[in-house]
């Protein structure tokens, strides 16, 4: 196989009956189905077998023996025809600053330079590189530069604290960090390099830090360890051969919260990830040549990896990278940027929609949104009110909303409408995409067949982009995802299936809460709160929050009854912010003298959830509690 330019990756589903046909084929003969899709990509060597799998082990391999480099698919193959087309539009934090347009040729040159810069700094295939950067074009170059030479990137969201960075760097044994002096988000400046310096005191594996100048600050630079991006990049050239990667070689690690305190490093590999994310991007958004596509996520999360960087670029699209926040300089920022860049496909999160919905409509009305064709939603269930507001005011009733359900672990869309193809139903992710075989399970671990049902959502057959393991802990991978319902991948979500077979995701059924679309483990927040010297024990649950979807409610036992409760609350919030990051700060902190525990010492979170929801009328059976009287105290003190 060669780098011969192929036709732009084709949309193959354009009607509901097409969908049904493709879906049926993907179930009856998954290997033939995915082989056809994979043939649309550039491979250096063809695979010898499409799939091997066993969900009991668990083990999944796709396109076995195939060799490829994802950056040739994201960049090189587009060059013969599209060297001067815009690959990336960068919209800076401050709208008064100039936006940048980066062509596919420039992207090629910059990615190759980063690849060479990494090599010059000792990075080889298989080495792990931590990326802790603002939303700037160089972040895309850094990611793709790693992929070019087969280094495994681990992007850490730049809102995480030094402590979180330490855990992630050490867990995967990164050798190098790429960061920036600082970042700006709205009117807030964050000194990223200072956070990295703090973290690196505890990260013995890091040999080198490459620092991009973004805020023109002069941070501390450690002799022999820290180098400037602009100095290093001068010394390298703009050509770098793309490393031949095995389909199953690691492409990246991305950490996601787990039910225990320790984040899970989800491992994604090269071949299946590329094929699946690109296919789903192309299919769900029905992407057309020349369209401008904007996903507002941060590249620090899976949405940014798959649907800002890899899939849109593989599809030859123009993808927007936005550095700022929806409320800066005012609540009309998204809409103005849509007008400025004539965005055709806009993909955001329910939490953003809910916060913008609260602003006067004049912020929307002053912008021309007529370029929009398709809207998307991701990250949490979108409530009907937000769905209707989005549909009416942003889509003007003409743009389908694709409510895409998926996860860090799935790497790509799983259950989602296909734009202009699937009849929509507000707040429903609708139907599984081709290749996706959901099964709803009841409490006893039996599959519930038929429609009008609900239960726990599992997937019973592998798709090409399923995570292969948790970095360094395959046993945890098995325990977390494949042991609850043996032989099936357990998503951790609850769902309903309506009379037409449409899926509605109802939310997490485990100890993960989703705050503003961010996955947070309650155990991780609890252990951060416990770090405060006044705190003895904590239980954290989610509660419904108007804008964030879920808020964080902490029940805290102190060693001594606090004198100044509000002061202590602020200190606790600061402790959490310092240990994990500001996104994990509890919204409500209730001081209690005990927690509802069973005789075996397990906290009955069901009760705490009810209290946090403000619904204490029926707390269910509390007789198995060690001390049932504690429930009355907790109810009386509810916030
Ligand atoms: C939730 C984000 C309802 C779900 C891509 C899932 C959703 C978790 C939706 C994964 C949706 C994501 N409707 N819930 N359209 N999309 N979720 O790993 O609970 O950050 O398990 O991946 O977000 O979050 P993650």
Structure commentary:
The protein has 639 residues and is an alpha/beta fold. 5'-O-[(S)-ethoxy(hydroxy)phosphoryl]adenosine binds next to helix 11, strand 19, strand 20, strand 25 and strand 26.
Can you lay out the helices and strands and say which pair or pack?
Elements: H1 16-28, H2 30-38, E1 49-54, E2 59-64, E3 67-68, H3 70-74, H4 79-82, E4 86-91, E5 100-103, H5 104-120, E6 128-132, H6 137-149, E7 152-155, H7 162-172, E8 176-180, E9 183-185, E10 188-190, H8 192-200, E11 208-212, E12 226-228, H9 229-234, E13 245-246, E14 250-256, E15 264-269, H10 270-284, E16 292-295, H11 302-314, E17 318-322, H12 333-341, E18 345-348, H13 350-357, H14 362-365, E19 374-378, H15 384-394, E20 401-404, E21 438-441, E22 447-448, E23 453-459, E24 469-470, H16 474-481, E25 489-497, E26 503-508, E27 512-515, E28 518-521, H17 522-530, E29 535-545, E30 549-558, H18 565-579, E31 588-592, H19 605-613, H20 629-636
Parallel strand pairs: 4-17, 6-7, 6-8, 7-14, 8-11, 11-12, 16-17, 16-18, 18-19, 19-20, 30-31
Antiparallel strand pairs: 1-2, 3-13, 4-5, 9-10, 14-15, 15-24, 21-22, 21-23, 23-25, 25-26, 27-28, 29-30
The chain binds 5'-O-[(S)-ethoxy(hydroxy)phosphoryl]adenosine.
5'-O-[(S)-ethoxy(hydroxy)phosphoryl]adenosine (WTA) binds next to helix 11, strand 19, strand 20, strand 25 and strand 26.
Give the terminus-to-terminus CA distance: 64 Å
CATH architecture of the largest domain: 3-Layer(aba) Sandwich
Reading side by side through the largest sheet, how are the strands ordered? 12-11-8-6-7-14-15-24
Going by CATH, the homologous superfamily of the largest domain would be ANL, N-terminal domain
Mean pLDDT: 94
CATH class of the largest domain: Alpha Beta
The biggest beta sheet is recorded as: 8 strands, mixed
Percent range for helical residues? 25-40%
- Counted by DSSP, the helix tally is 20
Radius of gyration: 24 Å
The fold-level CATH name of the largest domain is Rossmann fold
Principal-axis shape equals globular
Q: What is the structural class?
A: alpha/beta
Ligands: 5'-O-[(S)-ethoxy(hydroxy)phosphoryl]adenosine
The strand count comes to 31
Low-confidence stretches: 1-8
Indicate how many domains the architecture comprises.
Answer: 3
The proportion of residues in beta strands is 15-25%
């Amino acid at each position: 196989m060669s780098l011969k330019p192929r036709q732009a990756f084709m949309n193959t589903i354009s009607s509901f009956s097409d969908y049904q046909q493709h879906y049926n084929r993907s179930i009856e003969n998954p290997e033939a189905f995915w082989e056809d899709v994979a043939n649309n990509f550039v491979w250096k060597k063809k695979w010898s077998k499409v799939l091997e799998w066993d969900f009991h082990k668990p083990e999944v391999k796709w396109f076995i023996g195939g060799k490829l480099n994802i950056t040739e698919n994201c960049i090189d193959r587009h060059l013969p025809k599209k060297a001067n087309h815009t690959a990336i539009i960068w919209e800076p934090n401050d709208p008064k600053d100039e936006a940048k347009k980066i062509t596919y040729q420039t992207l090629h040159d910059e990615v190759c330079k980063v690849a060479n810069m990494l090599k010059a700094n000792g990075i080889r295939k298989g080495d792990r590189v931590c990326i802790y950067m603002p939303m700037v074009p160089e972040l895309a170059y850094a990611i793709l530069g790693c992929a070019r030479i087969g280094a495994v990137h681990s992007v850490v969201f730049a809102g995480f604290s030094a402590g979180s960075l330490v855990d992630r760097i050490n867990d995967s044994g990164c050798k190098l960090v790429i960061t920036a002096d600082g970042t700006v988000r709205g009117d807030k400046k964050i000194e990223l390099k200072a956070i990295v310096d703090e973290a690196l005191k505890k990260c013995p594996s890091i040999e080198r830090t490459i620092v991009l100048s973004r805020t023109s600050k002069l941070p501390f630079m450690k002799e022999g360890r820290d180098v400037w991006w602009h100095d290093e990049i001068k010394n390298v050239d703009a050509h770098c051969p793309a490393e031949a990667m095995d389909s199953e070689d690691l492409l990246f690690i991305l950490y996601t919260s787990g039910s225990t305190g320790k984040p899970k490093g989800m491992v994604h590999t090269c071949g299946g990830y590329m094929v699946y994310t690109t296919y789903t991007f192309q299919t769900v958004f029905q992407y057309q040549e020349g369209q401008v596509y904007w996903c507002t996520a941060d590249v620090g999360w899976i949405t940014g990896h798959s649907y800002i960087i890899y899939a849109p670029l593989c599809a030859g699209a123009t993808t927007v990278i936005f550095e700022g926040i929806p409320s800066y300089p005012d609540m009309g920022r998204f809409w103005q940027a849509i007008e400025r860049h004539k965005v055709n496909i806009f993909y955001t999160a329910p939490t953003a929609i809910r916060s913008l919905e609260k602003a006067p409509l004049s912020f929307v009305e002053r912008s021309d949104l007529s370029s929009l064709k398709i809207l998307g939603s991701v990250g949490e269930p979108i409530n009907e009110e937000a769905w209707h507001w989005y549909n009416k005011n942003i889509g003007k009733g003409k743009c389908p909303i694709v409510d895409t359900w998926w996860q860090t672990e799935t790497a790509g869309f799983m259950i989602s409408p296909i734009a202009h193809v699937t009849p929509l139903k507000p707040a429903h992710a609708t139907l599984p995409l081709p290749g996706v075989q959901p099964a709803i399970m009841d409490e006893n671990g039996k599959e519930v067949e038929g429609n009008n049902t609900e239960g726990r959502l599992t997937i019973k057959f592998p798709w090409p982009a399923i995570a292969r393991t948790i970095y360094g802990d395959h046993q945890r991978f098995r325990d977390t995802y494949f042991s609850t319902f043996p032989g099936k991948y357990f998503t951790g979500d609850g769902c309903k299936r309506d009379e037409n077979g449409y899926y509605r995701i109802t939310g997490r059924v485990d100890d993960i809460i989703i705050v503003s679309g961010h996955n947070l483990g309650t155990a991780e927040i609890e252990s951060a709160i416990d770090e405060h010297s006044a705190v003895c024990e904590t239980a954290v649950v989610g509660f419904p929050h108007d804008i964030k979807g879920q808020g964080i409610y902490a029940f805290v036992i102190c060693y001594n009854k606090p004198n100044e409760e509000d002061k202590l609350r602020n200190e606790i919030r600061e402790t959490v912010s310092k240990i994990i990051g500001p996104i994990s700060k509890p919204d409500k902190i209730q001081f209690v003298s005990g927690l509802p525990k069973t005789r075996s010492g397990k906290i009955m979170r069901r009760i705490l959830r009810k209290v946090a929801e403000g619904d204490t009328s029926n707390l269910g059976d509390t007789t198995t509690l060690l001390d049932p009287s504690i429930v009355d105290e907790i109810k009386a003190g509810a916030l």
